[in-house]
Structure formats: structure tokens, C-alpha cells
């Protein structure tokens, strides 16, 4: 019987899966702008907060390591920090 592999802790898994959000994504300005427009249109942000929104999905594809997750996270974090909550 083969020896059992030691399972990693949740903290180790989190550290390995952590995605850093850079200040600027090189050569991804156009893609980030498209995602930004999609998010803002979906939320329909007004000066008084979120007053609507719509049920939409965004599909982002590309080769591994091309910045998909970083771009989406950057746009979402920026959107969340700019939405005035009541």
C-alpha cells in the first residue's frame, strides 16, 4: 500500500491560491476597460448608489497566466470602492 500524502492546511492552500492585484496591468488596458464598462452597466450605478442592475454574465477566457483573474479583480475592487453605500 502506498503511503498517504500529507494534506496541506487551509492556510497553505489560501497562500498558494492568493492572487495579487497589481496597480497596473501591462497590455491589458483595453480588456480592463471592457470589463469596467460591463460591470458599471450591470450595476447601473447612480450618485445615490445601486438603483437597479441586471442579471448578466461575463465570460472571460484566455491562456493561463494572461491576467484574466487579476484584471477582473482589479475592476471589481475599483467598482466596490466607488459605490456609495447607504
Description:
This protein is mainly α and 86 residues long. The chain has one domain. The protein is built from 3 helices and 2 strands. Strands 1-2 form a two-stranded antiparallel ribbon. Helix 2 crosses helix 3. The longest helix has 15 residues. The protein is elongated, with a radius of gyration of 18 Å. It starts with 9 loop residues before the first helix and ends with a helix.
The termini sit apart by 60 Å
The average pLDDT value, as a whole number, equals: 76
As laid out across the biggest beta sheet, the strand order is: 1-2
Radius of gyration: 18 Å
Oligomer: single chain
Estimate what percentage of residues fall within beta strands.
under 5%
- The succession of helices and strands, N to C, reads HHEEH
Please count the helical segments: 3
Strand-pairing-aware structural class: mainly alpha
